[in-house]
Amino acid sequence: MYKYNKRWVYLFIVPTLIVFLTFYFVPILTVFTTGFTEWNGFNAPKFIGLANYKMMFFDDNSITVSLINLLKWSLIAAFIHVPFGALVAFIMYKRPVGWRFVRGVFMIPNVIAVSAWAIIYRFIFNDQMGLLNNFIRKLGFSDFHTNWFFDRQYAFSAISLTWVFYAVIVTLLVLSDLMAIPRELHEAATIDGATEAQIHWRINFPLIRGSLGTAVILSVIARITMFEAIFLTTKGGPGNSTYNISVMLYDGIINYQFGYANAVATVMIILGIGVLAITTKVFKMNKSVYN
Amino acid sequence: MKAEQWTRGLVRVISYLVLLFTVCISLVPLLWIVVSSFKSNKAILNTPFALPTDFNFHAYYAVLKMNNFLSNTFNSVLISVTSTLVALLFYALAAYSFAKFDFIGKRILFILFSVTLLIPGHATAQPIFSFINITGLYDTRLALIVVYISAGLAVSLFILRASFMSIPKELDEAAYMESASFWQVFFYINLPLAKAGLATAGILMFLGNWNEFFYGFMLTSSAENRTLPVALQFFTEQFSYNYTQLFAALTLVTLPSIMLYMVAQEQVQQSVVSGGVKG
């Protein structure tokens, strides 16, 4: 055994530990505890029990709207976003002509700032000069006019369209799982007379459930934290039809309702953990795939 | 047999249509922005699908000459680069200890650090907002540097720990035999060999910081301290009906991310799979 001073090992952890304590540990404790207080940041927090939660769930309908929106967006994530990303992965797995190009291009919307993307979409859905309306007018509906983000009927769908088909993360996760499947499995199945559909359904599909589960978790958590796509387009409106929990938290903070904001943040954290627990169970992610 | 060929052909056609669709939705919005930035305001409104008739960079000059655009760009570069480098150093140090040594509290610390991945990004916003206010850092570049350092903790730690683990311990032992110090073994032997992991984690964190909006927006108030993604929001108000300049600004803000991505495609895609963040 070689000699080294054990103190170094701990010293190397210290910077990360400081970051952890300052930006995660203490903040999370603050969030959990001050959620039970009335606090504006200037006076000392005053303990008020469950009053924030009571107000949130019974007096103010923002959380109800936010949770319903979250549920709808989560369903869209689980049943359109993730399947679409997985479909693209299955297509790419066959390595059709140009698949590398498509994979490269598909990633671009995810590497640019979400705020820029939201603003671009604000113009795509603009009534007068927007790409979408001009396209529809070009198709022959020459007097078509809709201001997508500001029309109660369409705002929710418009927000959904800014992310629903941009599923490159799902594609990359599923693709890397697909590529890890041993070739012998497919060869053996073909020899046994399995059709391609059967190979997909019986072999590939069960083996990629881990990445599908990860994809669902990531995209639902992204719905919980979705901020720019709403804040820079509809601001939660019209009315509160596109409101969500992140915008709600932001509003609480800038209005110096810190206690209330942290009650909202607590709900947010619980939701995140709940999503993880449920998805892990549904996709049997805690069980080994190959055995 | 005939029927089977038919279905095969059909599957093929549909596959290519799906791929074409993904390319369109990814490129058309950006191409529209870039093309429109060379058109007049009138042309944007009247002939939205036409190509620009007269090719010039007037809008770009105008944006670059604007009071704060260059200082916003400078802020973005300074903040993203500094926070990424500091974070890389911090997390490389910790990852090295976790990867190569046993010590008391190792398991619990690693679990605690990993759990931060489960906290939805903005949930801790109020305490961080107050912390920045109390320390007097509100509306400074340092505030964003400090907050961004914390952003990539768990994922970077995973990526870097894995790369240090793959470096054989025999190398370290040989160096210790030659009486190298702990720091030397880390800095001269392990760090260079963990290059790939450092690049992956670094690019992931840099892109995250370069594109960050929420804290950038909440922790700054004056125009000259904003980063580009935040400034963009104010440009849209400032330019309100000058679409040409607005599209030029959008192009200038998105271009660096796309260029970095083109240079480091493999690492970016790799980091998505190993980190699985953002989306």
Largest sheet of chain A: 2 strands, antiparallel
Distance between the termini of chain B: 43 Å
Q: Please state the structural category of chain A.
A: mainly alpha
Overall strand count of chain A? 2
Stretches of chain A where pLDDT falls below 50 for ≥5 residues?
none
Helical amount of chain B:
over 70%
Mean pLDDT of chain B: 90
Q: Identify the strand order in the major beta sheet of chain A.
A: 1-2
Order of helices and strands of chain B: HHHHHHHHHHHHHHH
Unreliable runs of chain B:
none
How many distinct beta strands of chain B? Answer: 0
H-E order of chain A: HEEHHHHHHHHHHHHH
Give the overall pLDDT of chain A as a whole number. Answer: 90
State which percent range the strand residues of chain A make up: under 5%
Name the chain pair with the biggest interface and residue counts per chain.
A-B, 97 and 93 residues
> In percent terms, what proportion of residues of chain B is strand?
under 5%
How many helices of chain B? 15
Helix content of chain A: 55-70%
Structural Rg of chain B = 24 Å
Q: How can the largest sheet of chain B be summarized?
A: none
